């Protein structure tokens, strides 16, 4: 186990009816609120009205930034920063999934910074502070509700980049599984893939002597696998939705499940370059890429892949070689993603070989990626070609 | 899963050499420090000198409260509160195990309160604030380094009672596994039993639909069982000490592993009454009582005990009844405690039946205890009698 520091100050309010605590949760920070949301589904479901009622009860003045994209754009973030400055906003409320929360975080850190917010994503400046923000989660996937990370796309430059800061943790997040009943099946699938992928990035590690962390990772994977299909087939299954929601939050709440482990994140970086050009859903890109990353790297530490196969997928090791067990676990991952309806090839989303070179080059812009196996441009190109 | 709120603001600095961060971690809060510690082992190991050096580097004024007892006493807490007021202390640093940290927390919440600190423990007053505190952990056991709980003994009244408050969370805790190399074997054993018992109190729950939380609990139990004997037999096994330390912290860091689950805590309340009269180590009391609590209650939800037996103790269920599997898991718990050198009967610590009635009565002073099975005075007496 490596040395580490860990802190996660976000307060979680979890369960049906927790939205009633929204007003009082905000009023400790301010009453001049920027409401950030996405494509308008929160109006169709009535959530928007419930939120406004809570804000009215604390006498809040409300500005709005609607229309945050599934891959949120820096242009939208800049718009939000301008509103915050003009309206002297003192609290940002994100209502939506990871994209909306990520946009709200980028706005929050951008407001007190004199330069352009994209500087943070290009490592040209360090985050020094942020407006306080909170979230009401409507989609289980990214864990953004309980961490300090934000991923933003710059379409002018076809770049999708991430930041992370203790200042960007939400002060609170309201997690009501009932709010995810209306999530379309394909987005539920993407959320499942995203949650599992976040665990993969932490679990497949070269760090030795981390038995507790490995088991915490396996606990989340097993819980997601057991509950995923239930939520897809019975969207209002409270227990399944609650189990997925808690799993997604714990999968990436500041690294709690992988403290002291070197993380990988290469597959996410490759996926970011795919969706920066083709604008496919993050979960779709991960479902396509991850099993191919696994096939490309598993020999680097086959014992971890054997453990994964046996503990998560219950592969019977009797009479099989390590190689066979590891590959059976990877195949089980591929099969599960396919079974729940996720794509398995880039061609399933009409992506051909044309931009593979560009995507591989951009993935390693800041140097080789990953740590389970360090990937150079050629490696990334190989994984993308395996995925065509 | 029940609805819940969760927040844990403590910053953890984990790993060898993290003590070098002590000075800078304190200076954000103040430089007039009360140093709280126990029986003086920190002087023998040289830790005391290393701490003082860190405090000198930030120019701190240092007052001291040495001699905190293994079952820390309210008289000692009152002494600490008096020092804080006289010396206008602005930060409390606890150096030791759970007892020292618990005492520091009680001092921290007692300073801003006008009445006597024992009022909090008797539910006569609510905690409204606290002096900031931090800890340097020297013993893996209680999780006090990352939660808001404190257990204090009042010898005048033979009472041992607990408080919990968001104000009592340490601002930071330094967890260096190397600092536990010198812990005597019997205290390592007590720490193992305490950690496992904390998980038991959360895991044996009547709450339905909590598959992730159950697995998180099992992850800790398995990790402790695998690493316990290594640490006992090879005190300077860094990996074993680190795995035990992280397990103990996660086992009780504000309930992270059991969010949305009703907890039990009856066995702890019974043990508190035993050690309030006989002053035995908390871990010894738990090792004696817990398997007997299990035998007394397992029929209330036999499926959880079956799962415990199979997943934690790897009991082969083939050809066995649920009853047999559950009892085999309980016996495995008893056997493990015995194997690592923990006592199994109250008579092992020279405790006879004389005070059983008084302990049973005091356990239920505030009403029946526990939730897996609600225990009345008669039930508590039966468990104590099983333990003689």
TrEMBL record, chains A, B:
This is NADH-dependent butanol dehydrogenase A. Keywords: Oxidoreductase. Residues 188-385 form the Fe-containing alcohol dehydrogenase-like C-terminal domain. The keyword Translocase does not apply. It comes from Paenibacillus konkukensis. It comes from the Bacteria. PROSITE patterns: ADH_IRON_1 (PS00913), ADH_IRON_2 (PS00060). It is an enzyme of class 1 (oxidoreductase). The keyword Oxidoreductase applies. It holds the Pfam family Fe-ADH. Residues 9-177 form the Alcohol dehydrogenase iron-type/glycerol dehydrogenase GldA domain. One of its GO terms (molecular function) is oxidoreductase activity. Its EC number is 1.1.1.-.
